Description:
By secondary structure, the chain is of the alpha+beta class. It has nine helices and ten strands.
Amino acid sequence: MKRSEIYDFLYLKICRLYARYFVGDKPADTIYKFLCSVQFWKEHRYWPHLKNPRTFEDKVCKRILFDRKPLWTTLSDKWRVREYVANKIGCEYLVPVLWRGDKPEEIPFDDLPSKFVIKTNHGCKYIIIVKDKKRMDRTKVKLQLEKWLGENFCQDKFLGNEWAYKNIKPIIMVESFLDNNGKEPEDYKFFCFSGRAEFLQMNFDRFGDASENFYDRDFNQLEVWNGTKSYKGKVVCPNNYVEMVKVAESLAEDLDFIRVDLYNVRGRIYFGELTCYPGGGAIPFVPRKYDFLFGEKWL
């Protein structure tokens, strides 16, 4: 193991342990704030301004460390957020749930269609795409789900600081596969500030050769990088883009910032998720001016 890997392993573990046993559900204390600020500097090469935040990443970090509104837990829970979405914009935007429960061995695989998506509700990247049920290794899937269900995404990942996930009761959700010509649909991630969609991050082939583009509100491409390579193909603005913006803004209403993730499949809009902490506050904007530009919108 390289020296840098040893440092990361030990440092992140110390941060998680401190958060678990000394912070809990409280806002970060001075020690934990310092521990997270060191990692912030390591990722961004500037110290976070938490008293008077200026950049977008400053403000994500401040929310992570100090904001303990129960609403963030509701919005981060992939099951409970569905009720929030239904009340805001209606059930027709929700991806159909084929089954839910908390025991992998109870998933009715024989009754499911040939394509579907399995996910858990309590973290990020807890997802299995099944495109051909006949080729799926059920034992492997069940073991993976058991592992995920045994994790607390807040306490067991990265710095242990993404509090919104800490108190979510884990369950399994099986959803319909949104078929976009045999592939997963593009992901439209709207950065909404004070209820207004200001920027769009569009992700392509998330589970393969991942890439992304950024756009302004009017779908003009921006020359900015934020963790994933730029998409080189041709992108056409959807015919129902105005409706997508309206949906995103309806879900973001009354929130100072939220990222609203949507799908667009053959002209039909589906809700993906609401994200309180994009990138965990750990992915730099290149060029850095966009860190300030996004931050200026967050009032």
